[in-house]
Amino acid sequence: MKTLVKPIAVADVLKPQGCTNLKLRQLMRRVAQYYDAELAKTGLKTTQYSLLSHVVKLGPIRAVDLAGAMRMSTSTLSRNLQPLIAAGWIEVNAGDDARSRLITATDAGQTKRTEAQRKWRIAQEGINATLGIARVSALHALIDESLELLSPLESGDDDV
């Protein structure tokens, strides 16, 4: 008499355990700690560094265009600009017409970005050393592929 063996599906063996959202948030918090610790030495938060970097690269730029480039709402952008303006790193000047405004990094802002860029590299090197170059490269590839697969789900405005 033959014994029937039920084949084990690969999906059953490799089925993820736990919540993907939770695991990604846990990883993001840990990675962010590396960057936050280094950038704090410059007086910037990671979100402020990102915003300042975008303005340095893209400016002078209209708020609506900057918000689009950073994939955030204009109200979130406006809120996030305030500390950088108060610190004198970014300024908002008149644009081509009376209604438009252009966001620009000041000389002090460009200097601050260069200082923060050095700290950002230190954080990245710390991640590379801790996880290993191969793992970081594989993680980047997996993230890029996942973003591509999930891109049809995009709604437009991400608050960063």
Automatic annotation (TrEMBL):
SUPFAM superfamilies: Winged helix' DNA-binding domain. Gene3D superfamilies: Winged helix-like DNA-binding domain superfamily/Winged helix DNA-binding domain. Residues 37-136 form the HTH marR-type domain. It comes from the Bacteria. Transmembrane segments: none annotated. It holds the Pfam family MarR_2. GO terms for molecular function: DNA binding. Keywords: DNA-binding. This is DNA-binding MarR family transcriptional regulator. It comes from Rhodoferax saidenbachensis.
